[in-house]
Amino acid sequence: MLHVLVAGAGIAGLTAGIALRRAGHTVHVYERSSMNEEVGAAINLPPNAGRHLISWGLDPIKCRFVKAESVVWLHPQTLKTVARHEHANNLENYGAELWYAHRVDLHDALRQIATDQDGIGPPVTIHLKSFVVGYNTDIPSLSLANGKIVQGDLIIGADGLHSIACETVLGRRNPPVQPKHYNYCYRFLIPAKALEADPDTEWFNQDSRGLTRLFIDNEGSRRLVAYTCRDNTIHNLVGIFYDNAAKNATREDYLASVEKETVTERFKGFSPKIIAVINKATEIKRWPLLYRAPVPRWRKGHMALAGDSAHPMLPHQAQGGAQGIEDGVALGVIFEGANPDDVEERLDLYEKVRRGRASVIQILSNVGQDQSHLVREDLKDYLDESQIPTNPAENYSYMFGHNVEKEAAALKLMKLSQ
């Protein structure tokens, strides 16, 4: 049995905690916040991630997730359909559905599974208001802001975009930078009831269950994405664009409130019907989009990275949370049966399983599902040219069809039997 220390109780950190708990290890998660209010709006739970959480006991219906039915790309002025992709065969093709979830609902479910007294393995212990400020990767330990040092056998650094763990692994600073194509977004939620009450906006509710709508203005580098969550009672909207002013964004710009007039001006020229929907928002947050190029290593000594600390992603492929879940699942498989002397060897396996695939999706996430040609050259470092997705359907196949549990188990069996 290992004593595992996880820095960060986000989606990746909690998933790693659950997986390592199920592998028989004692897990302590250190979270800087009080977790009273999980930040964020909605999130996709695609087949490549959801199949594993469901096998652990997560019930999408009880969590009020919405099953995806289709995606439509729409002209922002005429609202005419430009392209469409159906998700009706996801279960048949990939063994699981694509779900749209409120981030709070997903996070609460993960926390419940992690700490459930009746689950497999020792319940995960979550330490709140415990800010990790330093790591020792040789004598595995965390340094907390209160001066306390916590020792263990294995450290998982899941401390997010501005990761101290990543800098520790690389031995240098690795700040996020502005992406080339889209660098800012507005996020907001609108209750379906608010739209239904107004004749100018009730159209947005029609046939909305399980539907993702993308209103795309490629010439103006603007995109508006919308889908429902929480049992179809809430519309999640994300307006994505490029803004030179974002180059000066600071941490204080994250989740800063924005006036509706700013948003409607940004999307000026979109159909008046869309502007009417935006005007129903009561709270809009701005969110600078930052990017880090794939890193050359994920581990050092007895520590490895997971989630955004390893592979922060822009939202265009809706795979950020899913890739953090894949990290956690892989850790659970690889560390089953491990003892302290095995840690470094097992971390090598973890990096082999995860770094290449996550790097591909990290690069693809810099552009829309219809724009993979813009990052084709960057992908050649990781994929043969014939493997590079060229359209949304191929993107979905590459992302949804992967089973990280099987890949990790196969590599582990091959390496440990040599």
Report on the structure:
Pathway: Secondary metabolite biosynthesis. It comes from Truncatella angustata. GO terms for molecular function: FAD binding; monooxygenase activity. The chain has 418 residues and is an alpha+beta fold. The chain folds into 2 domains: 229 residues, FAD/NAD(P)-binding domain; 105 residues, D-Amino Acid Oxidase, Chain A, domain 2, CATH 3.30.9. 31% of the residues lie in helices and 22% in strands. The chain contains 13 helices and 20 strands. The strands form 4 sheets. An 8-stranded mixed sheet has the order 6-5-14-15-16-13-18-17. A 6-stranded mixed sheet has the order 8-2-1-12-20-19, with helices on both faces. Strands 3-7-4 form a 3-stranded antiparallel sheet. Helix 2 packs across helix 9. The longest helix is centred in the last third of the chain and has 22 residues. It is globular, with a radius of gyration of 21 Å. The model has no long low-confidence stretch (mean pLDDT 93).
Q: Based on Cα principal axes, name the global outline.
A: globular
Provide the low-confidence segments as ranges. Answer: none
Radius of gyration: 21 Å
Main beta sheet = 8 strands, mixed
Structural class: alpha+beta
CATH topology call of the largest domain: FAD/NAD(P)-binding domain
Distance between the termini: 23 Å
In what order do the strands lie side by side in the largest sheet? 6-5-14-15-16-13-18-17
The total strand number stands at: 20
Proper CATH architecture of the largest domain: 3-Layer(bba) Sandwich
By CATH, the superfamily of the largest domain comes out as FAD/NAD(P)-binding domain
Share in β-strands? 15-25%
Specify the CATH class of the largest domain.
Alpha Beta
Count of domain modules: 2
Q: Helix count, per DSSP?
A: 13
Keywords: FAD, Flavoprotein, Monooxygenase, Oxidoreductase
Pathway: Secondary metabolite biosynthesis
Pfam family, one: FAD_binding_3
InterPro entries: FAD-bd, FAD-dep_Monooxygenase_BioMet, FAD/NAD-bd_sf
